[in-house]
Amino acid sequence: MIKSLLLSADGRYRNGSEELVQQWRDATGSKLWLDIQSEITPEVRSLLQSFDCNQLALLDAGRMRHPPKVENFDANCFILFRGISELDDSLDHVPQQLAVWVGEDYLITLHRGSSVSVENLRGRVSEEDLLQSPAVMALGLLHYASGRYLAKLMAAEERIGDLEDQLLGDNPNEALKSLVAYRTRLRKLRRTFNYHQRMAETILHDGAPFLGTGEGDSFHVRRDLYDRCERLSSLCTLYYELCGDLIDGYISLSSHQLNNTMKILTIITAIFVPITFIAGLYGMNFDNMPELHHEHGYFFVLGLILTVAVAMIVLFKKIRWL
Asked: Least CB-packed of 274, 290, 306, 315 within 10 Å?
């Protein structure tokens, strides 16, 4: 599916499909937004090549898992952005590759399936007259797409806090499983956000001929995009480390509790070892054991056992095992 939006030189907007491309070429001073919701078929490839889209950029755009990047070419600027088609409260997400070409008087977006960010931009472009500057329009698209990540990521902070409380509650195992799952998903998101941050940093500091350089008209938009991408990267790293600290803390606490349990069992065993030895010694019942026929032999052995037990307890307290 191909949708196009044409802004004529007199400020009027027209919606259509591929037929507006020729009208844009014929009308001097007009601006065009071409939105392609499709894979790169031979027809789509031919259409993009007519806009002088670089062959290598087309190859990158066709890959499902290519890292986000920004490249400058003679005819346009190519941006590859890792968007999202689905993202739930547990940060389980389905990525969506978004390819953007920005020229002097046109903007091309390419994505497989419906894009929430593109649809949002479509609803605002005429009202805010965004197509007057394809560069600002493209940066606004990336800014909104990053904002969708940010809203879910900030909502996850409260959920992680609840899991922290559950670790100390009656059902810590389920909370631990959830934290491990969060950490795994945050690791994947952090990798994407690091790419986005480097991409936004390049756009801000190095600039691009078709996105603006220095402190031109698009500087504040480029700055906002960098700030959002940097915040996403830092928050994701913070939550990832927080989940790791909670998991390590719970494991340390469980290990400490286990050590205390083993310590108590060891002390009990150490106390009863000499007692068991004494009981075994006088339980052999040989006929020539004089203690067996002693009138107070039973009480003597009980006293010896009690004395050994008390001595062991005193010793353990002295060396601070108890």
From this structure: 290
Per-residue tens of pLDDT for the chain, all 322 residues: 888 888 888 888 888 888 888 888 888 888 888 888 888 888 888 888 888 888 888 888 888 878 888 888 888 889 888 887 777 777 777 788 888 898 888 888 888 888 888 888 888 787 777 778 888 888 888 888 888 888 888 888 888 888 888 887 777 888 888 888 888 888 888 888 888 888 888 888 877 788 877 776 778 888 888 898 899 889 888 888 888 888 888 888 888 888 888 888 888 888 888 888 888 887 777 777 777 777 777 888 888 888 888 888 888 888 877 7
Range list of H helices, 116-218: 116-125, 134-167, 172-201
List the structure tokens of 262.
């083993």
**Strand, coil or helix: 109:** strand
CB 2 within 8 A of CB 35: yes
Contacts of 183 (CB under 8 A, 6+ apart): 240, 243, 244, 247
The neighbour count for residue 226, using CB atoms within 10 Å, is 20
The amino acid occupying position 231 is R
3-state secondary structure of 92: coil
Strand order in the sheet with 77-87: 13-16, 2-7, 31-37, 106-111, 93-102, 77-87, 69-72
Burial of 223 (0-12, 13-18, 19+ CB in 10 A): middle
Residue 87, helix vs strand vs coil: strand
Rounded to two decimals, what is the model's pTM? Answer: 0.75
- Tally the residues of the chain: 322
Q: DSSP for 198-260?
A: HHHHIIIII-BTTTB-TTSTTHHHHHHHHHHHHHHHHHHHHHHHHHHHHHHHHHHHHHHHHHH
